[in-house]
Amino acid sequence: MSATTDAAVRRPGTAAPAAAGRGLLRRRRARLLLLLLLVLVAAAAALSVAVGSRGIGPGAVWQALTDPGARTEETVIIRELRVPRTAVGLMAGLSLGVAGALAQGHTRNPLGDPGLLGVTAGASLGVVLAIHLLGVGTPAGYVWFAFAGALVGTVLVFTLGSAGRGGASPVTLALAGAALSALFYALVRAVLVSDTDSLDAFRFWVVGSLAGRGPDVAWQVAPFVAAGLVLALLNAPALDLLGLGDDVARGLGQRVWPARLVGLGAVTLLCGAATAACGPIAFVGLVVPHVVRAFTGPAHRWLVPGSGLLGAALLLLADVVGRVVARPGELQVGIVLALLGAPFFIALIRRRRLAAT
Amino acid sequence: MTAAAQRVRQPGETVVRVGPVSGRVRWRAVGVAAGAAVAAVLLAAVSMGRGDFPIGLADVLRTLAGLGDETQELVVWQLRAPRVVVGALVGVALGVAGALFQTFARNPLASPDVLGISQGASAGAVAAIVLGGPAGSGLVAGAGVPLAALVGALTTGLLLLLLAWRRGLDGYRLVLVGIALWAVASALVDWMLTRAAVQDAASAYVWITGSLNARTWSEAVPLLVALAVLLPAALACGRALGAVQFGDDTARGLGVRLVPIQASVVLVAVGLTAAAVAAAGPIAYVALVVPQVAVRLAGGPRPPLVASGLLGAVLVVGADLLTRTVLPQALPVGVLTAAVGAPYLLWLLVRGRRRSTL
Amino acid sequence: MTLDAVTSTRPRDGTVRLAAESVSLAYDDRVVVRDLDLQLADGSFTAIVGPNGCGKSTLLRALGRLLRPVSGQVLLDGRAIARTPTREVARVLGLLPQTPVAPEGLTVGDLVARGRHPHQSWLRQWSRDDEAAVAEALVWTDMADLADRPVDELSGGQRQRAWISMALAQGTDLLLLDEPTTYLDLSHQIDVLELVARLHAERGRTVVVVLHDLNLAARYAQRLVAMDGGALVASGSPHEVLTEQLLAEVFDLEARVVPDPVVGSPMVVPVRRIR
């Protein structure tokens, strides 16, 4: 694709105006950004493996990663704690960033956040019921229940949001999401105020953390993340057309409802998997696409992968920060992200000229 | 009356002119408000009669009029009335605050729950409970928690106003900044809950759910005073809100002085929320659901203030009555308000009579 | 490099390209257009006129397969449009809704490039034809210098040009435009309609346009279709359609019709509204 473009533009005497050259510059900038983000993600992952409450030298880290024969306490920590934790963080960050870009594109609303669509509330209810009724008590045990809850939540929101006469509009979807979340949280609270043991377990899940996520969690969510990412990438070109409005998109030959279903399916898979793996994490899905859009413009071909990479880097770095600032304990990644993300988000809101919906 | 004047009027509307005072009365909105008021009073009376020492409805009313016997006086006036009064006033305050926010931001999701003010109050209260020493001791047992909640709510509200202010207030920016504040406050609450002893966490959790348990006149009276000041202010803002709703340029064109109106609407709504939350905790979703229900019942272009307040009272008092009578165990009222209010809003959505923005 | 993508090579032989066959249209339960027949010939330039709420935009949406008729059907080149894959339709028929909105920050160049979507696939994302068609469309609509500017920062007239440029890059024989001159001042209205007329004359496009302004419709279109109350009331050349009697019946307007001093098309001079 790129080679053709370059050749066509550079060929002298064609009708391609200077403007196309500037457009090319933007594409180059977007490609450069993706490359930089890739480097950033790699660096963040390296930090996440190397830094922790227990100081382990780079030599031991390297040995743990390269020499399967080595069996010291340090290599075990690296292999069985830090690497899986990093993998989970990587997948969750990728998922949340991509899901945010998709949700904002499909709702044509810069506020579009998967959490508003019932994912978080559904997952919370699933986890609470698992704790209260079945006595589940480990992150790996929560995964299926959180994921099932997230699926039920989104499906219900979309069914109810599009059941009215007008069909699904962003407003009815948002209202249905809010109402259903209210109902789910009411059930969550009904359980938690009457069962202190459940509260004791739930409070460590709801805060959003990567602590204690082992290889089992990573393998549980990996297939869903992979499927969600594939769907998201397939969906990206359609999003560019939907951005011009449903009528124009259909005029250009885009089938609107199939595209929307694929997109929302991807959002549910990704956001559900991320929430199942590490609990509700705010702000990544909301903020990251805004930042990436400032560099790439609104083309989803760049925006979707860019948001995923930045989301992954952000989540991993926030996790590392949380491990460093509160030694020997740690500050959960959900807290770090909220505290860092909110001021940034407010600055973003104040800087931009916001078009009202 | 001329034919032309006739044509200006909406159906179901009557013009009232008494001396220099004139206005238009929309009977449907008046009917909804009156119905809600009657329902609130009835529910309150029933609620004051129920409990370990049951009193009939007639006796409750007689006692309230000062004609009951000594035991009834004590039970109704000292034990049950404060709880019901706090519930009703909290409902009024949250309903009106929600209507103000939603109209101002032109967004049905704009409510103190979403804008972070309730979460700010929770952060204050949880800090007081968790950091204030062992449960039930010293500062925490007294005025500490409500005061901390009040401070939390007002701080968040002022931050909201300051951070969203940029040559005036844009409703959209207000919602976005509010969501950011909500996330910070939620993170703080969640984090403090993980740091607390489990008993403290449990009592903090009951508080942030919103409860009317053990409320006395010492909560009811300050709330009453606050509402006496804030409700007239809210109604005064309400008139200008109709113009603000069209968007800033149109409002200016209609001669509304925008900046003072915007600031006072938000301040009044923050004040109402803070007062309510300090008294009973952030009773969930009253401010979000009630104005939406009110506007669908009463019709019209935006949530009616008076009807929203009265329906808020119905919801809170009714939910409290349910928790104490029907349910096998006494849940905090905040669980019920969400569980009752949310399905009703869903039903209204599915029925789909309106699909507009407010 | 050829410019086939932009230039229509079909012969103009007057065959019917797009037709409505006893079409009834409704939103929910409200019937807007009832039992309407209309045929649009290859290479024609048709303007649909009528009072507010007469169903002209609704008809245009149905012709562009955005609205499915409750009864009757729309035929594109003799084939039911509802049963033709939407992407195939999009290679033949382009449409521009009233006041479309571009996402914030989208540049003119990107907007026009999106018009190539019906010609692209996963393997063939940006062919030489695409490149050429976009460049040509930009030059042709005089937007090349603005290609790097965000659409939302343009003036109303420039914005409309950008959208027409997108429709041009789509490279379709047929072009449906819904009130392309809304919110534009008179000189920009002329500018946009001149552009559409050139598309028709020089590029051989079959154009259907919904227009408010009767005088502009009469000046630029070869054929006027007048609608009232969801039905077709008159169809023919501007001289045949724009009569004082029709203006009275359809628009409740007492008016004189005089020849346009510039091009001789009929021109409406209103006298008063008939109550």
From TrEMBL, chain A:
Which SUPFAM superfamilies is this protein grouped with? ABC transporter involved in vitamin B12 uptake, BtuC
**Entry membrane topology:** Multi-pass membrane protein
Q: What is its main location?
A: membrane
Any one GO molecular function term: transmembrane transporter activity
State the UniProt keywords alphabetically.
Cell membrane, Membrane, Transmembrane, Transmembrane helix, Transport
Q: Which domain of life is it from?
A: Bacteria
| Compartments it resides in | Cell membrane
Q: What is this protein called?
A: Iron complex transport system permease protein
Source organism: Geodermatophilus pulveris
Q: What is the lineage of its organism?
A: Bacteria, Bacillati, Actinomycetota, Actinomycetes, Geodermatophilales
UniProtKB/TrEMBL annotation, chain B:
InterPro entries per the record? Answer: ABC_BtuC-like, ABC_transptr_permease_BtuC
Q: Please indicate which superkingdom the organism of origin belongs to.
A: Bacteria
Enumerate the GO terms in the molecular function aspect: transmembrane transporter activity
Q: Does the keyword Cell membrane apply?
A: yes
Q: Does the keyword Membrane apply?
A: yes
> What is the protein's species of origin?
Geodermatophilus pulveris
In Swiss-Prot or TrEMBL terms, this protein is called: Iron complex transport system permease protein
Stated membrane topology is:
Multi-pass membrane protein
> Which terms are listed as keywords in the entry?
Cell membrane, Membrane, Transmembrane, Transmembrane helix, Transport
**In its UniProt record, which GO terms are filed under biological process?**
siderophore-iron import into cell
**What do the Gene Ontology cellular component annotations say?**
plasma membrane
Record's family?
Belongs to the binding-protein-dependent transport system permease family. FecCD subfamily.
Entry's localization field: Cell membrane
Q: Where are the transmembrane segments?
A: 27-48, 84-102, 114-133, 139-162, 174-193, 220-242, 263-285, 330-350
Automatic annotation (TrEMBL), chain C:
**What are its GO cellular component terms?**
plasma membrane
Could you give a GO molecular-function term held by this entry? ATP hydrolysis activity
Annotated coiled-coil positions are none
Q: Does the keyword Membrane apply?
A: yes
**UniProt KW Ion transport keyword:** yes
Alphabetically sorted, this entry's keywords are:
ATP-binding, Cell membrane, Ion transport, Iron, Iron transport, Membrane, Nucleotide-binding, Transport
UniProt-annotated location(s): Cell membrane
- ABC transporter domain spans which residues? 18-254
Q: How does it sit in the membrane?
A: Peripheral membrane protein
Top-rank lineage group of the source organism: Bacteria
Q: What is its main location?
A: membrane
Q: Name one GO biological process term.
A: iron ion transport
Protein's recorded name: Iron complex transport system ATP-binding protein
**Which organism is the protein's source?**
Geodermatophilus pulveris
